[in-house]
What we know:
Layout: H1 2-18, H2 23-26, E1 32-36, H3 43-59, E2 63-67, H4 74-81, E3 89-94, H5 95-104, E4 116-125, E5 127-131, H6 140-149, E6 155-158, H7 164-176, E7 181-184, H8 188-196, E8 202-206, H9 207-215, E9 220-224, E10 251-258, H10 263-277, H11 280-288, E11 292-293, H12 299-320
Parallel strand pairs: 1-2, 1-3, 6-7, 6-8
Antiparallel strand pairs: 3-10, 4-10, 4-11, 5-8, 5-9
Helix pairs in contact: 3-10, 5-12
Amino acid sequence: xxxxxFCLALAGAAVLxxxxxxxxxxxxxxxxxxxxxxxxxxxxxAMARRLADGLxxxxxxxxxxxxxxxxxxxxxxxxxxxxxxxGYTILFGTSGPxxxxxxLYKNQQYDPQKSFAPIIRIGHLPNxxxxxxxxxxxxxxxxxxxxxxxxxxxSYASSGNxxxxxxxxxxxxxxAGTQILHVPYKGTGPALNDLLGxxxxxxxxxxxxxxxxxxxxxxxxxxxxxxxRSDALPDLPTIAEQGLPGYDVxxxxxxxxxxxxxxxxxxxxxxxxxxTLAQPAVKQALHAQGIVEADDKTPQGLASFIDAQVPKWRGxxxxxxxxxx
Length: 325
């Protein structure tokens, strides 16, 4: 009897010894691919590459940045949504693919709320409302009053139909009761060039792009399009402070994996990103880009944030009758 019990105990120990380790205890065993759904060279790409460098030390594996651009970020996002849910292919998402595009594009093949396992919200990049110096306004209330008295004089540039800089103007018109004309361009560069040349009156541009021109006096900043002020321009009040409470069109950044990725792998990736973001060199680099770090860096925090952003933009897009093929 004792011999039988002893043999069973040995057999049980052998089973435990041969049982596979949990996913997180062995992850990652090979390089991780961080997909950026935009072309190389832009601010999102630069941010992803800086984080990838830091993640290498935290994960013990190389993190490869792969650019899969097109359709406002949908091509890269769809690729990750359909990838194997093992944590080795993750997305560096922004407001477009993670909140806006699902209401904007007619034939989007993924759902930001259902197709991904949220990992972490990195933070956001504030947009700034700037006007050409020839526009005789110095704050948001003056702009609204001028726009109502001169309905055919003002126009705002965007980087393209459906871009956050376009939707920012739609939301502004809706909340302010103005009818400022939208002029779409093929990218931020052409839009900025025409704004600097006075061909358009104003724009909602990310603070990193606009700041040098504001400091040089080529553009006038009249309001920050985010929920809080920016360290880059601490004396510039937000648009919300100037009479449009709740106005916020910042571009947010979040990391997601395919739906079904094991929870322990998500937790491993989350901790790696948290530790990377805590590195002084990384903090300095993101601050230099104008990034405001998220307060809540948990997977649940990103999930809740996306859940709030999707209906917000759906209402704006539907009311404005904006659609992309």
